[in-house]
Design brief:
Blueprint lengths: L9 E6 H17 L3 E5 L1 H5 L3 H10 L4 E4 L2 H7 L8 E4 L10 H5 L2 E4 L2 H14 L3 E6 L11 H8 L4 H4 E7 L11 H14 L6 E3 L16 E4 L20 E13 L4 E2 L5 E2 L4 E6 L16 E4 L2 E6 L7 E4 L13 E5 L5 H7 L4 H7 L5 E5 L5
Parallel strand pairs: 1-18, 2-3, 2-9, 3-4, 4-5, 5-6, 6-7, 7-8
Antiparallel strand pairs: 1-10, 10-13, 10-17, 11-12, 13-16, 14-15, 15-16
Bound molecules: pyridoxal-5'-phosphate (PLP).
InterPro entries: Ala_racemase, Ala_racemase/Decarboxylase_C, Ala_racemase_C, Ala_racemase_N, Ala_racemase_pyridoxalP-BS, PLP-binding_barrel
Organism: Sphingomonas vulcanisoli
Catalytic activity: L-alanine = D-alanine
Length: about 375
């Protein structure tokens, strides 16, 4: 559904020029270490829409994409040229193997059982099928434990049956450059990868790209940083803002001191207060945990959220704005030059990833591309 600016309570601006600039930045960083830069476009490109994000990343030079499940691959594959690779990170769900060749997606095999299932399909079809292998290197999430890695490395016929494109693992603590786990994971990963000396390696996500050249391997897998989220304190993370979010002022009122605001009347005014009601709430992904904690901005002025965020609206204090500066129908900033995606995540007690992937479907969406303009 396309939502007009006039009918929307929120306006989401997606800057594809900034997305491409961020991609090129990480591609250049990876190239210095001899690695390529893949893009993670799972969860509908972190909520921004694969149909707009994937073509922009292709234009910026990306040749490897990652999603997490097959249905996402079904949507992304038709957007890609034949020579561009598409991996499915969560692996072969039971019974799903035959769908992969039909779609043209490459499974990440996360267990010995998955590897054998894939090899059996390849044998049955009489063709070599492509795959990646994921090793579990201390995170205990997805991937083969060391004994399975050894088993598959010495499995008779496996390498002849399977066209092994990539061995990979995932960093548990990449956002913390000082975490001892990073070096430990790198060592465990390199030991396992040494059993497949001719195969490309991939370890780093966004945070991992600044941990040092050894983490880059042959392919980095960048997600959140492409979309403007900064997962680490590292100074190299000056990114361009891809997402801006504005909320519409849908009602203005002035109330006396001692007036309750919102569900539960959790906030009571202590002065005569000018309140603006904004036309979005937690159903739009403006999390309820921002109740009484977050803020909007207008003309550079911070305007605190008063009381609870409702499903479809919330109240902000606009008393300190110059009189008659704000009108019903005006837009105030929620994510933009004065308040970053990461700051919103922190105020909500979560991370930028969750803010992005929670963004709802009721926004008027503006797609801009400064480069193309
Ligand atoms: C989500 C994901 C990524 C991307 O992580 P970011 O922190 O968003 O860069 C990379 N690899 C795997 C396996 C993932 O699940």
């Amino acid at each position: 559904m396309v939502i007009s600016e006039a009918s929307a309570g929120g306006r989401l601006t997606i800057d594809l020029g900034a997305l491409k600039a961020n991609y090129r930045r990480f591609a250049a960083l990876a190239a210095r270490d001899g690695a390529a830069c893949g893009a993670v476009v799972k969860a509908d490109a972190y909520g921004l829409g694969v149909e707009r994000v994937v073509p922009a990343l292709l234009a910026a030079g990306c040749r490897t994409f990652f999603v997490v499940q097959l249905d996402e691959a079904r949507v992304v594959r038709p957007l890609l040229p034949d020579d561009v690779s598409l991996y499915v990170l969560n692996g072969l769900y039971p019974g799903s193997a035959p769908d992969y060749p039909a779609i043209g997606a490459i499974p990440v095999l996360n267990s010995l059982a998955q590897a054998r299932e894939w090899a059996a399909l390849a044998s049955a079809r009489g063709e070599r099928l492509p795959a990646a292998l994921q090793f579990d290197t201390i995170m205990s999430r997805l991937g083969m434990p060391p004994e399975e890695v050894e088993a598959i490395a010495s499995e008779p016929g496996f390498r002849e049956t399977i066209d092994l494109k990539l061995v990979m693992s995932h960093l548990a603590c990449s956002e913390d450059r000082d975490a001892p786990a990073n070096a430990r994971q790198l060592r465990i990963f390199e030991e396992a990868a040494a059993l497949f000396p001719d195969v490309s390696r991939s370890l780093a996500n966004s945070g991992g790209t600044v941990l040092g050249g050894a983490f880059a391997g042959d392919l980095v897998r960048v997600g959140i940083a492409l979309y403007g989220g900064i997962p680490t304190e590292h100074p190299n993370f000056a990114l361009e803002r891809v997402v801006s979010l504005d909320a519409k002022v849908i009602q203005l009122r002035t109330v006396p001191p001692g007036t309750g605001v919102g569900y539960g009347l959790t906030f009571t005014t202590t002065r005569e207060t000018r309140i603006a009601t904004l036309g979005l709430g937690y159903a739009d992904g403006w999390l309820r945990s921002l109740s009484g904690r977050g803020a909007a901005y207008y003309g550079g002025q911070r305007l605190p959220i008063l009381g609870r965020v409702s499903m479809d609206s919330m109240a902000i204090d606009v008393t300190d704005l110059p009189p008659v500066s704000l009108h019903e129908g005006d837009w105030v900033e929620l994510i933009g030059p004065h308040q970053s995606l990461d700051e919103v995540g922190a105020a909500a007690g979560t991370i930028s990833y969750e803010i992005l992937t929670s963004l709802g479907a009721r926004y008027h969406v503006r797609v801009i591309d400064e480069e193309a303009a």
